[in-house]
Amino acid sequence: MSIRICGFSLLIIPNCMQFDEMSVQLENTTQALRDAVLAGNYDPGVAIREQAVAESQGVSRTLARLAMGALEREGLLTHEPNRGFRVRAFSVDEVADAIEVRGELEALAARQAAERGIPEDLERHLRDTLAEAAALMESLARGDEEARTRWIQLNVQFHHGIVEASANRAIMPVLDSVSRIPLAGPQAIVFTSTMTETVMAQVRAAHSDHEQILDAIVLRQGTRAASLIREHAYRSSRNKRQNFEEIENTKSGPLPAGLTLIRRHATG
């Protein structure tokens, strides 16, 4: 048995690959458990047993415990002495606050993208993204499921493209963390079972926001771009509050992960 950690003589480790393998296993277990929680497989407030997680994921209790700890740090689970882990419920206000925090981060990205100048190929990609999104509006109004799914993908592409244009590598990891709060990320678009004119007006306004934000970035108007994206985030958070009752009762269409964890008022 050699005394090394990937070349450093510090601890007794039989093989450095064991660390890599365990890291991959832990990452996969954490993601699988995260998906299960966000899919509503566990009710908020109900205890999650370490042994049950280990069995459902086909892993050791050690990996199950580490994965549960990771989700506690993300805020999806809570832990209480002698009571174990439980799934958190999130209030509409918490979701709205997280969206506004995301807006501040994206405002920073938009300002820096404008100041540094957006690459031509990325601008073309974002223009194409917006053009495809605009072409889907009529299909969205008809309730076309494929159009809804594609519009969500395009929305994510646009928001991620703004961060990419900023060339600030510190933004995306923080955004990813904030976006793990249910309904807070750009992928959390809820198309209700009946696309009312009010909801379609919100979608059209969001698309108009995107066009203005990109124009401001291209024109190197950093302050304006940041202001526009902050307002865009504010309207998104307001819409989540206003539409919550209909969102809560939505049973069709592409439903965002974590919808079952949202309550009008958090319960713990």
Low-confidence residue ranges: 1-5, 7-14
The tally of strands reads 7
Could you spell the SSE succession in H and E letters?
EEHEHHEEEHHHHHHHHE
C-alpha geometry? globular
In which order are the strands of the major sheet placed?
3-5-4
Write down the domain tally. Answer: 2
CATH architecture of the largest domain: Up-down Bundle
Q: Looking at CATH, which topology of the largest domain would you report?
A: Four Helix Bundle (Hemerythrin (Met), subunit A)
Distance between the termini: 48 Å
Overview of this protein structure:
The chain is mainly α and 268 residues long. The chain folds into 2 domains: 14-88, Orthogonal Bundle (Arc Repressor Mutant, subunit A); 91-263, Up-down Bundle (Four Helix Bundle (Hemerythrin (Met), subunit A)), CATH 1.20.120.530. 63% of the residues lie in helices and 8% in strands. It is built from 11 helices and 7 strands. A 3-stranded antiparallel β-sheet has the order 3-5-4. Strands 1-2 form a two-stranded antiparallel sheet. A two-stranded parallel ribbon has the order 6-7. A hairpin with a 2-residue loop joins strand 1 and strand 2. It is globular. The termini are far apart. Residues 1-5 and 7-14 have low confidence and may be disordered.
SSE arrangement:
Elements lengths: L2 E3 L2 E5 L4 H22 L8 E2 L1 H8 L3 H14 L2 E4 L3 E4 L2 E2 H25 L3 H16 L1 H6 L2 H22 L4 H9 L17 H22 L3 H21 L1 H5 L13 E2 L5
Parallel strand pairs: 6-7
Antiparallel strand pairs: 1-2, 3-5, 4-5
